[in-house]
Amino acid sequence: MNGNHASERFETVIIGGGQAGLSVGYHLAKQGRPFLILDANDRIGDAWRKRWDSLRLFTPARYDGLPGWRFPAPGWSFPTKDEMGDYLEAYAARFELPVQTGVRVESLSREGDRFVITSDRGRFEADNVVVASGAHRMPRVPAFAQELDPSIVQLHSSEYRGPSQLGDGGVLVVGVGNSGAEIAFEVARTHPTCLAGKPAGEIPVRHGSVAARFVLPVFRFLGHRVLTKRTPIGRKVGPKLAFKATPLIRVKSKDLAAAGIERVPRVTGVRDGLPVLEDDRILEVANVVWCTGFRQDFSWIDLPAFGGDGQPLHDLGIVRSEPGLYFMGLLFLYAVSSDVLPGVGRDAKRIAKHIAQLAARTSQAEATDSHGLTPRELEVVRLVAAGKSNREIASVLEISEHTVARHVQNILGKLRVSSRTAATAFAFEHGLA
Ligand SMILES: Cc1cc2nc3c(=O)[nH]c(=O)nc-3n(C[C@H](O)[C@H](O)[C@H](O)COP(=O)(O)OP(=O)(O)OC[C@H]3O[C@@H](n4cnc5c(N)ncnc54)[C@H](O)[C@@H]3O)c2cc1C
């Protein structure tokens, strides 16, 4: 990095070095394409490490590996979030993926034929950009949350680490997805706890049980192979499933009841600084944990690539209206599995292949347009056509006269002409001058 105003040019820049960005990097490296991954975090894997302390993955290790390297743990074990973070870091090292950490991208726009990326660590230019900034990052909290009494401790699930962050007194956990169920279950050990809302169903077998070993592969098959954008059932059901809360996986209704958690209706607003429920009850709690999910924020992307709902307009991650722009890790990008570990590798492979094909076509077109001349030879032929002598060209390009003479010989050979005059005529005729 050369400071704030530096500009570095890359064939492809991947914004986000989580599992989605690293998987694209792996496949680009395999295709021999140059690229750079930028990530705002200090360490690769921090997106996982920053989640709550007791979190274990819901997906077994056998489905948690990225392309080219199985997750190094028994297939039916459930890694901790730190083990997942460490695996991502080791993955980047193993495949020597070029990741610059501590770089927060602030804007993405286009200037002519290239993308321009500004960040807190400088400016980058790229022919292709893959946005892999994560579908589960920007906390979604209802607007009325700010009306809660300031004495109430409020946290979003993304800020929750453990019960010690909470004050004495009751806890209201809002939202019964897997985060809400797990966090309520944990805080109920130390605090009287209410859980507001209804779950979107439950996985019918005990998590980690032998029965689950038969059921999980079926779910994976459905989410990965059947519920995709390529099948009629996938197009019909996929978006509903992907954008809705996931059924409870590990902590289920009977566990919540056994832990003494009071189930209450949805929270609809705030009265006198306290949360109000759908049944008009006011809850006198000292803590609220919002497990209300995430939204995506693309306001930093200044490109006409979004629909009226602010979501990217893409075809399996490829933005047709902005050639060279790609998205990864979006909900239902291709399949219900697209935003989770079991699905990310397949999407990454398709996107990397598209980038490689585009790059190959561009270099072929450039080679045809330039009649096989290198960028330096193009400069020389332009100066020859401008009537400059070898000495003058050497002075303009700050190279030796001997090198200029060598370039001229190469140019005559490549253009199949025998003199400078003929090369000049060729250059004018073919738009090289
Ligand atoms: C609590 C929780 C548990 C989950 N458990 C599982 C599970 O068990 N199994 C499973 O398969 N999936 C799980 N998921 C879903 C999903 O796999 C994860 O959210 C995963 O982290 C998504 O990976 P990603 O690479 O798409 O995004 P992220 O992991 O969020 O990575 C995005 C990266 O982009 C970087 N970034 C973002 N914006 C910028 C910017 N402007 N400039 C530079 N860098 C930027 C971030 O620093 C981050 O490192 C879980 C999700 C949550 C929230």
Write up what this structure looks like.
The protein has 433 residues and is an alpha/beta fold. 34% of the residues lie in helices and 17% in strands. The chain has twelve helices and 16 strands. It has helices at 19-30, 46-49, 81-94, 178-187, 210-226, 232-243, 253-258, 341-369, 375-385, 390-397, 401-415, 420-429; strands at residues 7-15, 36-39, 99-101, 105-111, 114-119, 122-131, 138-139, 153-156, 171-174, 193-196, 262-264, 267-271, 274-277, 287-290, 294-295, 325-327. Strands 1, 2, 3, 4, 5, 6 and 16 form a seven-stranded mixed beta sheet that branches. Strands 8-14-9-10-11 form a five-stranded parallel beta sheet, covered by helices on one side. A hairpin with a 2-residue loop joins strand 4 and strand 5. The protein is elongated. Bound molecules: flavin-adenine dinucleotide. Flavin-adenine dinucleotide binds next to helix 1 and strand 2.
